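Ligand: heme C. Inputs:
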Amino acid sequence: MPHFNKHNTQINHTMNRPLLYKSLFSLILSLPLSAVFAYEYDPYNGEEINELCAGCHGEYGQGGKEGEYPRLAGQPIEFTAKQLHLFRQRKRPNLAMVEYIDERQMPDEDILDVSRYLAEIKLKTKLPPADENAPGFDAYARLLESKKLMQIPRAEGDIEKGRKLYNKECDSCHGKEGWGDHKKGVPMIAGQYTNYLWRQVKKLRNKIRIHDEDAPEEELLDDFSDEEIRDIFAYLSIVDD
Ligand code: HEC
Ligand code: HEC
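Predicted complex:
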């Protein structure tokens, strides 16, 4: 009976499907995330996760407490995602974040979503002038706008010396005026709290963090005196003025 035979094979075919899906699924799981075509950016998920981060890093990723919590807004996706992986693997110590970031609470997709969500937040460095007495002045809108602002207070040091040193020694990786390199995933160090940068200098010098993956044994900041770094940070503190 040809008809029955045909029907029979069809049934067998459908019955094998779940098995096929299962093996495809485990194949996908074994690939590095970047190779998984199925990942699609979900901005709503990014926004939702950011609500957890906002308690410390601010609603717009602007950071807080004068650099106890760094600015995250505008950082390259790869940089933020890499730091979250390092925190999750306990390779970069971060006591404050430990309870928010384990494999179960922060799967790879969530890391990518929140990293992109934060990368796309553009913080202004200046508020446009406004007249509080003008008709139509909206105090609440103004308050919201002021929260989306990043202004690094002027740090001590010789700005001109710092500018020259920065352009010679840091610009090739950290980008023009310290605004980072999105393609290479190098963080912005302009628009970042000076206190925070100093804390990281200590961690980099103590090899708690690795500065340049291509030369993990040599810490490049060891070649600079505290005074030189102070001058570089003084320069970086004025590029947003
Ligand atoms: C309980 C407070 C707290 C919460 C909540 C928190 N963080 Fe953090 N985060 C910190 C602190 C403190 C540091 C700085 C650690 C250091 O000094 O090295 C930090 C550092 C970071 C850094 C490194 C930034 C850099 O420039 O080096 C990233 C990225 C980051 N947090 C992302 C997140 C994300 C994304 C979330 C939400 C899922 C989050 N954090 C939630 C406290 C917090
Ligand atoms: C070879 C490229 C390269 C050069 C040159 C370089 N950096 Fe970096 N820097 C990086 C990378 C990459 C990171 C991020 C490291 C990581 O993934 O944790 C970084 C991170 C930092 C951080 C921590 C920022 C943060 O938000 O956590 C500071 C501070 C810093 N660099 C300062 C400097 C200064 C100052 C100079 C110049 C004297 C400099 N770097 C030169 C590549 C470079």
